[in-house]
Amino acid sequence: MGAKTLIIDGQTVSAENHVTILQAATDNGITIPTLCHLDGVYDVGACRLCLVEVKGSTKLFSACTTRVYEGMEVTTQSERLKKYRRMTIELLFAERNHVCAVCVANGHCELQALATSLGMDHVRYDYCFPKWGMDLTHPFLGMDDNRCILCTRCVRACWHIEGAGTKNVAGRGSKSHIISDLNEPWGDSETCTSCAKCLLSCPTGALFHKGDTVGESERDRSKLGYIVNAREKQQWIV
Fold first, then answer.
1. CA distance 96 to 142
2. pTM, rounded to two decimals
3. What fold, for 3-77?
4. What is the pLDDT of residues 156-215, one digit of tens each?
5. CATH class of 83-232
6. pLDDT tens digits along 56-76
7. Residue (of 163, 143, 156) closest to 209 by Cα position
8. Domains 3-77 and 83-232 share a fold
9. Domain boundaries, the chain
């Protein structure tokens, strides 16, 4: 498994054969925006914000799921990519009911931060204003579907880090939403361990601790990657 040499934004870099464009870029200090990527779980390419251009193809590739190869030439910043990313962010805001001013994650939200970095000051698309509710049946956690972007980070953290398998996606298209077990109230779940790893993984205010203020909603997501890394290296085996 030798190293591969490729070019990212005009910079020659080396990367291991099996890594993705996103990992190769990150390892070399090159930032590619993403919302569905989460260290410690597999990537699904759901948010489409990490789309990049690869020389020799007219298609756009998701950096989080595309593996590097020898001689690959990647562009992560172009007018075309900026246009697509801005459009994607606006569509995410239009699809659900994201009201930053009254959200517990205000100031600690990855969606909000990306919108700011991409210069989004308004949404050009019609808002859907879906009638989503909240699940407050859990003793100390809450789920607000209005703020969910369906990145599935909570689902992957629940299945592949905690191993509980409580969270899943139900529905199709605009009716897709996160459920607990077989679409039961979260508080009635027999599989949930109340570990709150789903909360740590969430990039928005869709998952929250009941009673938290805005200042208390900052989350250290590196803890999830630390857990996975420690398991892989068997650091807890005595």
1. 17
2. 0.89
3. Ubiquitin-like (UB roll) (3.10.20)
4. 999 999 999 999 999 999 899 999 999 999 999 999 999 999 999 999 999 999 987 666
5. alpha beta
6. 999 999 999 999 999 999 999
7. 143
8. no
9. 3-77, 83-232
DSSP characters over 85-141: HHHHHHHHHHHTT--GGG-TTTTS-HHHHHHHHTT--S--S--------EE--SSSE
Reported as half-sphere exposure (CB side, CA atoms, 13 A), residue 212 has a value of: 21
- Which residues neighbour 131 within 8 Å (Cβ) at sequence distance 6 or greater? none
Mapped to the 3 state alphabet, what secondary structure does 10-71 carry? CEEEEEECCCEHHHHHHHCCCCCCCCCCCCCCCCCCCCCCCEEEECCCCCEEECCCCECCCC
Instruction: Give the integer Cα–Cα distance in Å for 112 and 98.
Output: 9
SS3 234: coil
Pairing of strands 60-62, 73-75: unpaired
Three-state SS for 236?
Answer: coil
Confidence of residue 218 (pLDDT cuts 50, 70, 90): confident
pLDDT of 214: 62
DSSP state of 190: S
Report the alpha-carbon distance of residue 31 to residue 29 in Å, rounded: 6
